[in-house]
Specification:
The chain has about 400 residues and is α/β, with parallel strands linked by helices. It folds into two domains: about 10-185 and about 365-385, Rossmann fold (3-Layer(aba) Sandwich); about 195-365, Rossmann fold (3-Layer(aba) Sandwich), CATH 3.40.50. It is about 40% helix and about 15% strand. The chain is built from 15 helices and 13 strands. The strands form two sheets. A seven-stranded parallel beta sheet has the order 3-2-1-4-5-6-7, sandwiched between helices. A six-stranded parallel beta sheet has the order 10-9-8-11-12-13, sandwiched between helices. Helix 4 (about 75-90) crosses helix 5 (about 100-115) and helix 5 (about 100-115) packs parallel to helix 6. The two termini are about 20 Å apart.
C-alpha cells in the first residue's frame, strides 16, 4: 500500500497465546499493509495451546513482559508498563492494538507516557462493567475505561450493549468507536461433518446411542461448568455423557465434584481442545453456561458446526441465541433451567435437527470475512493518519 506513514505495529495482551489464538487475521492484515508486527505479552501465562512458534512462523517479533491479569498485582504490572514504554521507544512503534483488560490499561498508559504520538486501537472483548455486574467491577473498571478512552483513537466492541456504552465515552480527538461481530468465525473450518460422529464417539469412549453434551472453555468460575454438573446429578440419566474441554484454576474443584456426584463414568475433563472443529462433531448439543461473556466464540463455533446450543442468558449470548429456535436459553445459575433444557434437547431428534439448521444459519453474520473487512478499514485509518 503506497504512501503509508506508519510501518510498525504492536499487539499487547496479557497471556502469551492470545494473539496466536484470536489475532492472526489482524496480524496478517497489518503485514499486508507493509507493517512490521510486534507482540508483547506474558508468555509464562498461557491458557491456550498456541504461542511463540505460531507467531514466529508468521514473522512476528515477540516481547515477553511481566504483565499480570489482576489490577492489584502491582509489582508485575508496574514492571510491564516500563517494559512497554521501552519497546515503543526502541522499536519506534506507530500503532498499538491492545486486548484484555490489563493489556488495554498498560498499553494505553505506555502510549501516553512514551514521549511519541502512537495511534491506539483497543478491542474490548467484553467490558467488565455491564448490566448486572458486581458493584466492585463498576468501581474499578468503569472509571479506568472512561479515563483511558481519552488516549484511545479507536475503541472496538463486540456486542451491542458495550457498543452503546462506548459511544458515550470521550475518545481522543477524531477518535471513533466500532463494533465488530467478534474476532471472526471461520465457517470454512467450522461446519457440519455428520459422517464423523460415530467414529468420534467411539474414540471418546461414548456409547453410540448415548446423548453427548460438549463444553469448551477455560475451567474457571465465570465459565460456570458447575451448574451443568449439578443438572446432570439431578437428571440421574445414565445415557447422558458430557465432555468438558479446557484447562484452568477450577480443574481440581470440578474433578472432585464429578467424583462426589458419581458422574466419573459419564463426565470427562479432556484437557485443552486442539481441534474443536473436529471434537464438536461428536456432540448432540453444546452447553455454554458462562456468567459473563463479551460474545462467546465457543458457542458460535458449535453453532457453525450445526450443534444446537444451551446457553446462559448474558449480553454475549443475547447477540445470537434465539430461544426455542437455535437452542435454549437458561438463567445462568438455575439448575432447574438446565435440567429442563437438557431433557427437552435429548428427547427430540427432530427438534435438534431444526435447531441445528437454524444455528448454522445464524452464524453467517459472524463470518471472518466480514470482520476482516472492518479491520482493514480500521488499520487503513490508523496507517494513513497525518502527523503533526
Amino acid at each position: 500500500m503506497q504512501g503509508l506513514y506508519m510501518k510498525k505495529a504492536l499487539f499487547v495482551a496479557t497471556v502469551g497465546g492470545f494473539a496466536a489464538k484470536f489475532e492472526m487475521e489482524d496480524i496478517r492484515c497489518l503485514q499486508e499493509y507493509g507493517c512490521e508486527v510486534h507482540y508483547a505479552a506474558n508468555f509464562q501465562e498461557n491458557v491456550y495451546n498456541v504461542g511463540r512458534e505460531e507467531l514466529e512462523r508468521q514473522d512476528v517479533h515477540l516481547h515477553n513482559i511481566a504483565i499480570q491479569k489482576k489490577p492489584w498485582q502491582i509489582s508485575g504490572n508496574k514492571r510491564a508498563l516500563h517494559q512497554l514504554i521501552n519497546i515503543i521507544r526502541k522499536e519506534q512503534i506507530n500503532v498499538i492494538h491492545c486486548h484484555t483488560p490489563m493489556g488495554g490499561v498498560l498499553a494505553r498508559l505506555a502510549a501516553l507516557f512514551c514521549g511519541r504520538r502512537v495511534y491506539v486501537v483497543y478491542t474490548a472483548h467484553g467490558f467488565h462493567f455491564y448490566k448486572g455486574a458486581p458493584a466492585i467491577n463498576w468501581l474499578i473498571y468503569y472509571p479506568a475505561e472512561r479515563l483511558l478512552a481519552h488516549v484511545t483513537d479507536c475503541l472496538i466492541t463486540i456486542n451491542h450493549e458495550d457498543a452503546a456504552r462506548a459511544r458515550r465515552f470521550s475518545l481522543r480527538r477524531n477518535g471513533k468507536s466500532v463494533r465488530i461481530p467478534g474476532v471472526g468465525l471461520d465457517r470454512e473450518r467450522f461446519y457440519p461433518m455428520p459422517n464423523m460422529r460415530e467414529e468420534l464417539k467411539r474414540k471418546l469412549e461414548i456409547p453410540a446411542d448415548a446423548f453427548h453434551i460438549a463444553m469448551i472453555g477455560e475451567l474457571n468460575k465465570n465459565k460456570n461448568q458447575i451448574v451443568v454438573l449439578d443438572a446432570l446429578k439431578e437428571l440421574k440419566d445414565c445415557t447422558i455423557y458430557c465432555s468438558i474441554w479446557g484447562r484452568g484454576d477450577s480443574k481440581a474443584f470440578l474433578q472432585e465434584k464429578i467424583r462426589e456426584y458419581g458422574l466419573a463414568s459419564r463426565v470427562r475433563l479432556r484437557g485443552y481442545c486442539e481441534n474443536p472443529e473436529i471434537m464438536l462433531q461428536s456432540a448432540d448439543c453444546f452447553i455454554f453456561p458462562s456468567l459473563r461473556e463479551g460474545l462467546g466464540m465457543a458457542a458460535l463455533e458449535a453453532m457453525a458446526c450445526g450443534i444446537p446450543v444451551i446457553a446462559a442468558d448474558n449480553r454475549g449470548s443475547r447477540e445470537y441465541m434465539k430461544a426455542g429456535i437455535n437452542g435454549f436459553v437458561c438463567h445462568a445459575g438455575s439448575v432447574t433451567d438446565y435440567v429442563k433444557a437438557i431433557r427437552q434437547m435429548k428427547e427430540s431428534a427432530a427438534l435438534r435437527q431444526r435447531m441445528s439448521e437454524a444455528a448454522r444459519k445464524e452464524t453467517e453474520s459472524y463470518d471472518i470475512k466480514i470482520v476482516k473487512s472492518i479491520m482493514q478499514s480500521v488499520y487503513r485509518d490508523a496507517l494513513e493518519e497525518k502527523r503533526a
